[in-house]
Amino acid sequence: MKSSDKHGKIIKASTKVFAKKGFFNARISDIAKEAKVADGTIYLYFNNKFDILISVFEQEIGRLIEQVTALLDKEDDPRKMLEIFIRKHLAEMKKNRNLAEVIQIELRQTNKLIRDYRNNKFSEYVDILSTIIKKGQQEKIFRQDIMPGIAKRAIFGGLDEISRVWTLNLDTKYTVDEAAKQMSDIFQLGILAPTSSS
Amino acid sequence: MKSSDKHGKIIKASTKVFAKKGFFNARISDIAKEAKVADGTIYLYFNNKFDILISVFEQEIGRLIEQVTALLDKEDDPRKMLEIFIRKHLAEMKKNRNLAEVIQIELRQTNKLIRDYRNNKFSEYVDILSTIIKKGQQEKIFRQDIMPGIAKRAIFGGLDEISRVWTLNLDTKYTVDEAAKQMSDIFQLGILAPTSSS
Amino acid sequence: MKSSDKHGKIIKASTKVFAKKGFFNARISDIAKEAKVADGTIYLYFNNKFDILISVFEQEIGRLIEQVTALLDKEDDPRKMLEIFIRKHLAEMKKNRNLAEVIQIELRQTNKLIRDYRNNKFSEYVDILSTIIKKGQQEKIFRQDIMPGIAKRAIFGGLDEISRVWTLNLDTKYTVDEAAKQMSDIFQLGILAPTSSS
Amino acid sequence: MKSSDKHGKIIKASTKVFAKKGFFNARISDIAKEAKVADGTIYLYFNNKFDILISVFEQEIGRLIEQVTALLDKEDDPRKMLEIFIRKHLAEMKKNRNLAEVIQIELRQTNKLIRDYRNNKFSEYVDILSTIIKKGQQEKIFRQDIMPGIAKRAIFGGLDEISRVWTLNLDTKYTVDEAAKQMSDIFQLGILAPTSSS
DNA sequence: AATGAATGAGCATTCATTCAT
DNA sequence: TATGAATGAATGCTCATTCAT
Fold this sequence. Notes:
Largest interface: C-D, 57 and 57 residues
Number of strands of chain A: 0
Shape of chain A: elongated
Strand content of chain A: under 5%
Number of helices of chain A: 9
Oligomer: homotetramer
Helix content of chain A: over 70%
């Protein structure tokens, strides 16, 4: 890491600007100003505007993966692991609104924008969920008929939608803990009342 | 309703073009060509490009609401109603890929793009879920501690993520029925194995 | 003159709209709305937008010529005739602000816009001045060394500038009579004090 | 002052293009081509098309003011000063036809186009005339009953009309000297024959 | 490495004019 | 005659990217 980590400064500035304005309305000059570098300097570190966006994903989600992984390594019970993932994800999204916006909105477009880009880091992140589920199934803790590939999307999608609303300044009546508790219950116990389960 | 129905033709063409290229990369001339009208004709029916996007939402989601509501009216059991919603939503998204893309990707941006626009139709659609949940709670079929406002987002988010992947041509290994069955189970029963439920 | 004199209505409406918005910012639909006819109807009476402008000149200035000529016919003294012209022109411009604007601003552009158009009516109007001057010279009332072609422009230009300011809402401190008196004096007596004239 | 002076080149090119085509028919690309810069470059120096027009006025009329003022500073006799102004104005308009056109035609529209713009430089220029007249009145050389606010407009309007005709390629039979002499005489002595003055 | 002036392709929108009714 | 829906050419301005310094 150089003393003047321009690459990092630009990534940080881009996250902020993309979050605030969206990818298409964000100007390279906005990013340059935010990062306190010249417009042209950005092109010494990135190929083009899309490249910046992708780098933001890779870097920010990479950081997320590291943090979540570190937390999960200390735990062995799949139920607890699932709860940790849920809580950590919601906490991060609430804390880092810029990242939340970028993941929820800009990430969606990326596959359309850049046909040959697959969000590997993102897949890796979501796959943490299926790994937990498979582990739970092996340990006979989670139902065998659950398809991990579907469950991971159900859970991630749910979390994403919850945190999406936070970025809109709506529904802030729920705290992270409340929401995390609810989501853990919904996904683990289901919404059926115990007596009515077949 | 005029015989030519230019308004409808433009909405239909816009849905297709927005789905294919995304709002920002869609050109008015693309839409005009797709709708087989002149560029200027579009402005006889819509104020601007944003207005077209919003109209697409209102119209297409309005149609979705009508269809889902019609199906739900025939059913009284909240469990069945939830299943119906899930199956219908997934079926529609699989069938109408253009609408799916627009909902999943473009709708996300809308609140950012147009500050004073609230997707009323969209809220109305998602609120069908919380209505079902509340009904189930009143009938003691769904757990009392579930917060409908959170559960509706968990469920819709999950469905959205599932169908999002379909539009990417990934994971088409799951049929609508399989996915619907899985989602219903996950949200109703949870993923915990029955014996391990506390 | 037909019962529904559309041609006249369009001319009248155009004068108003051109005055208010200027030729380039005036829309055919503005004129149509003002004249209470359909857009297309205008093209039954005029070839194009320029044609309307030219017709406005011809008609309005034609009316001006008639009125001024009628007044001048009653008078034989060139000094009085000059005063009458000056007073009448200023009075008309003050009364009919729309016409004033069109003459002062739009007429200027016309030669540039329409290369092959010569404002014959306008020339005819201004030539009334040179006719008066020539008559005065023949009667030895006006100085022989005055070139009528220059004097007519000096006088008309001066009047035009005075009334131009009126349309800008500036300098309304001068009444028509005051201004007319001043202008007559300036052009007849000059601004030199009598004692200092060589 | 940069060696390339793009700002100046664009002003010069704009004056030429506005003169030739008029403001509304002038294209930014016309100006860019004339100035030998890219279209976008123009927007590094000016906010918009109107801003270019205003800058042309300010700069060109500013130059005119400087030149006239320099000439007038050497003279003390109001009669001579008036003659100098008249001759200089006509000479400049004849020499610089582009500026002449822009002043005579485009300047007229400006107040209509841009409501909050007042041609300060232009007012300043015309006010040189009223200053001369007031000075002449104080020195008892010009008639006391002349209102300087009206006289300045009479004189400027007359000069403007004379030079306007030059730009139309009409009446080039008069030289600058002839016209200047005539105008000076008309405004100083009036057109009445000496013997017939009351 | 860093700068930022310069570039010029690209597009939403307007509006004079047409023409089927 | 009269209409007004439809047309599509035309353009001011933006901004990602380049490159001389």
